[in-house]
Design goal:
The complex is a heterodimer of chains A (475) and B (269). In chain A, 27% of the residues lie in helices and 28% in strands. Chain A is α+β, with helices and mostly antiparallel strands and 475 residues long. In chain A, the strands form three sheets. In chain A, strands 5-4-1-3-2-8-7-9-6 form a nine-stranded mixed β-sheet. With 269 residues, chain B is of the alpha/beta class. Among the domains of chain B are: 1-52, no CATH class; 189-268, no CATH class. In chain B, the strands form three sheets. In chain B, strands 5, 6, 7, 8, 9, 10, 11, 12, 13 and 14 form a ten-stranded mixed β-sheet that branches. Classes of the chains: A alpha+beta (475), B alpha/beta (269). At the A-B interface, helix 11, strand 10, strand 12, strand 14 and strand 15 of A face helix 4, helix 5, strand 7, helix 6 and strand 10 of B.
Chain lengths: 475, 269
């Protein structure tokens, strides 16, 4: 084990500049966001042609060469930030040794500046105060926290051999990150074989079929790597259009790239690249298409075991995946989903639908206490969009709820949409819910009711600003 | 069916001995493999197959209603206007390791399904299958043992026959939320009463529901059962108390009597 002062040395990774756009919705980057981020990439590529994209909203570039050209790391970071900000995108930059420290440095930026530069050899010190939960390994972070290892500094200080024997390859990678080193040593040595995978489309295809093909192509590429005991953390995706245009992007992943993860990145790249958009001789659909897709693995690492923190890979069997891919080809990627239970108070917030094949964690974890959550049992029918309703009392006057959660009169009849009036036989409420009052755009203030109508159906209703809505039905 | 069985035999050979011993449970004349993940020699995961020769398991409370004691493979079950009953029908198979597809039900209550015992991780949802829904359902049946569908329109005879053919060949089960002409089993809720809620107090706790199973063949005589749908813990349980006693607050009876009683109130408005 090295002493803290010795961390800077031959083992320190190359200097990396991270560009982070904080307003980007990282979790659900759909087509439009990926497309918009493509503009940011184009700007950054003006400074350095080799830009690695971690996901929409975060990209990296090797800082050494450009920094010398543009007059130092500070100057480079400032110029990139200015260029991106000129496109009306909020952008923070961070420079440090290694991608992990650089990405955190970009997040550590204070409002009054645009960049943080961690000096060479300072990555370990910079990382030390961060909690272990910043590692992209929630299970490992939980175990560490329970053992009293709460910060990256604590983790870095442990003997490497003990970490390896207790936490395996995952723990070793995490400790190397905490020490300001690369998570995995690169597989060095000559690569005789061509490990890339290429697919030519004849006839040319549009984006959607190309993404499906990418999944199979990625599997082929990974199988080739696996047979040599390798895996990759970065992949170059090359797309060639029928009009001869090419799009080449480097995609990096926090863990190791799986076939699904590669396909996801091909989707992001194609979302931002529509062949024919640049063709000046008019929108001729028939000649614009994707002619070739090539995946080149680079940054190979020895395959040390299982993938970090990806949901569902071992649950979805080949049979189901094939059927899902076929359905997605028929209906579109977003149309086939699997549900992920999430945290929330309303019935609609407790489930997130994730397109099949995508990997996405719930925005809010489900296993936390949610005070004022609707009581169990859960409704069997949850409307994706609440249905407008009207509720009146015995005198025929609409029922209202005051700001202090008092009901104007007993609800007596309910109509949902245009359906006929139903007499209310039992009711409970109001249960006031005030959510996210600190967030102007997403704040809600409503009162929930449960109503039972004469036909035996129970309803979950909510009244907000005097308007009644049916959120769910117990049927 | 033969293909599935041979597939299963293949998996059994690869199963670790302990998993075979603890996961094979016997139920009547069929053997179900519980959700077991097992790896192939190459390290990938094999298909999880719930296999057996005739029926997929259902929750114990529902077994008495169905002539086969479960969901007969290759058959259709129609459920009339009860979301929870649909979910309860598939929850047993899902808990036992089956994949479950849901087509045309954008308002599916996933939390309720999970409460009944269904595994959300083995749900495949197509909220809007569009006009080509029979083709979508057929594709889903290739992957899923059970598919729940709410047809956007009344199914045409040709589409029905095609899907019934797919079911017979593949051994899947189709649960239809709505009408399906010639379905061997039709389930509907005739009466229900909610417990735990009053006139401005309490909250919904449980629902007592009378479920009637009708159909052709073995169920020409309707079977009636009182169930807790749902019970206070979110599951389904048989209601052992006297069926005729409907003395809960907030009780409601579907039928002419209730409508007649409510009619004058609406007229006065």
């Amino acid at each position: 084990m090295k002493a803290p002062g010795q961390a800077a040395g031959a083992d320190e990774p190359a200097r990396v500049l991270a560009v982070w756009c904080p307003r980007w919705p990282e979790e659900d980057a759909s087509g439009a966001e990926a497309r918009a981020f493509g503009e940011v990439i184009t700007v950054v590529e003006g400074f350095c042609p080799e830009v690695e994209i971690l996901r929409p909203g975060l990209c990296l570039l090797a800082a050494r060469g450009p920094a010398r050209y543009f007059g130092g790391e500070d100057a480079l970071a400032r110029q990139i930030a200015d260029a991106v900000t000129a496109h009306d995108v909020v952008c923070h930059t961070g420079v440090a040794a290694g991608q992990f420290a650089a990405a955190l440095a970009a997040r550590a930026v204070r409002p009054d500046s645009t960049g943080v530069v961690v000096p060479p050899g300072g990555a370990r010190q910079f990382l030390a105060p961060y909690p272990v939960h910043v590692l992209a390994a929630p299970v490992l972070a939980g175990q560490l926290a329970r053992l009293g290892i709460r910060t990256l500094g604590d983790l870095a200080a442990l003997p490497a051999r003990d970490v390896a024997s207790r936490f395996g390859a995952e723990g070793t990678a995490a400790q190397r990150v905490a020490r300001g080193q690369e998570a995995r040593r690169l597989a060095t040595g000559p690569q005789q074989a061509d490990l890339s995978a290429t697919l030519e489309f004849d006839p040319p295809v549009h984006a959607e079929p190309a993404v499906f093909a990418a999944k199979g192509l990625a599997e082929q590429m990974l199988a080739g790597l696996a047979s040599r005991g390798l895996s990759c953390v970065r992949v170059r995706v090359e797309v060639t259009g029928t009009d001869g245009r090419e799009s080449t992007r480097l995609w990096r992943h926090d863990g190791l790239l799986s076939a699904l993860a590669v396909a996801q990145r091909v989707r992001w790249q194609l979302d931002g690249w529509s062949p024919g958009a640049a063709a000046e001789d008019g929108p001729d659909e028939s000649v614009c298409g994707i002619a070739m897709l090539r995946l080149v693995p680079d940054h190979l690492v020895p395959d040390e075991g299982r993938q970090l923190g990806l949901w569902g890979d071992d649950l979805i069997s080949g049979r189901v995946e094939r059927a899902a891919v076929r359905l997605q080809a028929m209906l579109g990627h977003e149309s086939v989903a699997h549900p992920v239970l999430a945290g929330g108070r309303g019935p609609g917030e407790q489930v997130m639908l994730v397109p099949f094949g995508d990997i996405r964690d719930a925005r809010h974890p489900a296993d936390r206490p949610w005070p004022a959550r609707i009581p169990r049992p859960a409704p069997a029918t949850v409307y994706p969009v609440p249905r407008p309703a009207r509720v009146i009392d015995a005198a025929g006057v609409p029922v209202t709820v005051t700001g202090r959660a008092a009901v104007s009169a007993s609800p007596d009849a309910l109509t949902v949409g245009d359906s006929p009036w139903l007499a209310i036989t039992a009711w409970a409420g109001p249960w006031p819910v005030t959510e996210r009052w600190w967030d102007e755009r997403n704040a809600t203030r409503r009162a929930r009711f449960q109503l039972v109508t004469e036909d035996g159906i129970a309803w979950l209703a909510a009244v907000e600003l005097g308007r009644w809505q049916i959120e769910a039905r117990y049927d | 069916m033969r293909e599935k069985t041979s597939q299963l035999t293949g998996h059994m050979e690869r199963l670790p001995a302990a998993a075979t011993a603890s996961d094979g449970t016997s139920s009547g004349n069929s053997v179900f493999l519980r959700a077991a993940t097992f790896s192939r020699p190459d390290g990938s995961y094999g298909d999880i197959v719930v296999s057996g020769d005739a029926v997929l398991p259902v929750l114990p409370a529902l077994a008495e209603l169905l002539p086969a004691g479960g969901l007969a493979r290759g058959s259709v079950v129609a459920v009339d206007r009860s979301g929870l009953l649909c979910l309860a029908l598939v929850a047993g198979a899902s808990a036992a390791g089956a994949w479950c597809g849901v087509a045309g039900v954008p308002d599916l209550g996933v939390v309720a399904a999970a409460g009944l015992g269904a595994a959300p991780a083995r749900l495949m949802l197509v909220p809007d299958p569009g006009p080509g829904w029979p083709q979508v359902v057929a594709s889903m049946l290739e992957a899923c043992e059970v598919v729940v569908v709410r047809p956007p329109a009344r199914p045409q005879a040709e589409a029905r026959r095609r899907l019934e053919g797919v079911l017979r060949r593949g051994g899947g089960v189709l649960v239809v939320a709505g009408e399906w002409e010639g379905a061997p089993v039709r389930l509907r809720v005739t009466r229900r009463s909610w417990a735990g809620i009053g006139d401005g107090y309490g909250s919904l706790r449980a629902c007592r529901a009378e479920v009637v199973a009708e159909g052709r063949g073995a169920v020409t005589r309707p079977r009636r059962r009182w169930l807790w749908l749902p019970a206070p813990d979110g599951t389904v349980a048989p209601d052992e108390t006297a069926a005729a006693d409907l003395s809960f607050r907030g009780s409601a009876v579907t039928g002419e009597a209730a409508r007649a009683a409510a009619a004058p109130r609406r007229a006065a408005r």
